[in-house]
Amino acid sequence: MSNANTSQALYGLTAQTINASTETLLTQVVNGTATTAILSVPANWNYNARSFRVRLIGTATGGTSATLILKLRLGTTISGTNIASYTVSGAAIPTPTLGGSNFSVWAEFTYDPTSGQLNGTFGGQTANTPTTSAAITQGTGITSVAGLQFVASATFGAAVATNSITVSEFSIEQV
After folding, report:
1. Tell me, what's the pLDDT at 64?
2. Is 49 helix (H, G, I), strand (E, B) or coil?
3. Element (H, E) at 73
4. Predicted local confidence at residue 32, as pLDDT
5. CATH assignment, 6-174
6. Torsion-angle region of 12 (φ positive above 0: left; ψ -120 to 50: alpha; else: beta)
7. ∠ at Cα 108 (103, 109), nearest 5°?
């Protein structure tokens, strides 16, 4: 759950059925139209040598022995830098009749405006199975806070009609 330091959050995103094994950006519905869910660091925040966290929380269902990869990308499109990937496989993504599975994944960042680098770590859990914390893929060439925008994506291992993801929170906050 977000806290007083949350600067931007998208809550209760509409469930997405992903009947393909290709990476799909997560969306939000605004005025009846699905658009890419994008988080942006506010221009007025001072991130010089201060940490911030991006979180993605929700539920997923799939087919038998489904595999799910959740990614955070730096930028606003699928071609943005993949900075963190979370892979979950097997019973952790059950079929809809078993109720699906929850997930909470995060990445904690520090941005240095002098070097233009974004550094950090990521981790999380799916169905109480932890993702080992690891270093993100470093973001480089970020010339201003305006370049700190993030999107999330999902990829299922096989195209199955029951593949679905529902995001309850996609947020960014200072830590």
Report:
1. 62
2. coil
3. strand 67-74
4. 87
5. 2.60.120
6. left
7. 145
DSSP 102-169: EEEEEEEEEEETTTTEEEEEEEEEETTEEEEEEEPPPB----SGGG-EEEEEEEESS--TT-EEEEEE
Cβ proximity of 40 and 65 under 8 Å: no
d(CA 134, CA 111): 17
Averages of pLDDT over each 10 residues, the chain, 175 residues: 66 87 91 92 78 92 77 95 84 65 91 92 86 91 91 89 90 90
**DSSP 8-state secondary structure symbol assigned to residue 94:** -
Give the CA diameter of the chain: 51
- Give the per-residue pLDDT at 119: 95
The structural domains of the chain, with segments of one domain joined by +, span 6-174
**Predicted pLDDT at 97:** 63
pLDDT score at 128 = 79
Question: How many angstroms separate the Cα of 65 from the Cα of each of 46, 61, 121, 148?
Answer: 44, 11, 28, 35
Q: How far is CA 51 from CA 64, 165, 174, in A?
A: 39, 28, 6
